[in-house]
Amino acid sequence: MMDLTPLDVRKKKEDFRRVVRGYDPAEVDGFLDIVSDRLEDLVGKELRLREQSNLLREQLVAFQDRERALNEALVTAQELREEARAQAEKTADLRVREAERQAETILRDAEQAVLGARRGLDELRVRRSGFLRSLRSTIEHFLAELDEEERRAGRELEAEESSGDSEVEEQDGEDEDSASDDSAHDEVDHEPDNAQFWSGGD
Q: Which residues in the chain belong to E strands, given as ranges?
């Protein structure tokens, strides 16, 4: 399928071949103007939706990077906790308890950060799903409008063809009546000539 721009539609007016019993040029030009305007709207909406999609994709990548960093921080925190615990076991009970409290605090903060990032990611997925549903609904709506325009154009074409056939039949009938009148007139004109011929012979 080739790419079609509104400018291509407008230029198409000059490419149609003129025929005797073709479409009305004014109606064709008007319809092409409507199509080009609709196409401009669709192209504009597509660009806006593409920008929104790119923005959401960038946000998703940022959330994934943040989640990855938080996971790395969580792993690091766990390693630090194990090291702190091992070190604390070698020292007094006070240092052991203090190190455990610090490790638990770090772990709790990291887990909360991960949960927050996951909630943000879930929200982003929900928004993406809603955006896709809205995009599908918009496309289906415009496709339905295009189908209706095609059906309306078909009905108008059938009506024009039916009207054209009726005009041709009426014109044929008028031509036959005119020919019949001319024939009768010719017969009346010839009768006096014949009468004069016979009277002269007598």
A: none
User: Do 5 and 37 form a contact (C-beta atoms < 8 A)?
Assistant: no
Q: What is the torsional sign of CA 44, 49, 53, 59?
A: positive
**Rounded (10°) CA dihedral 135, 136, 142, 144:** -160
Contact 44, 75 (CB under 8 A): no
The answer to whether the beta carbons of residues 127 and 59 sit under 8 Å apart is no
Pick from 25-34, 36-45, 55-64: least confident: 25-34
Query: Do the Cβ atoms of 72 and 110 come closer than 8 Å?
Result: no
pLDDT in tens, 101-158: 888 898 888 888 888 888 888 988 898 889 888 989 999 998 998 888 888 888 888 8
Mean pLDDT, range 52-59, rounded to an integer: 93
CB atoms under 10 Å from CB of 22, counted, come to 10
Phi and psi of 24, rounded to 5°?
-70, 120
Structural tokens at position 130? 């809603």
DSSP conformation letters of 136-167: HHHHHHHHHHHHHHHHHHHHHHHHHHHHHHHH
Determine the residue type at 59: Q
pTM: 0.30
Residue 90 CA to residue 104 CA, distance in Å, equals 19
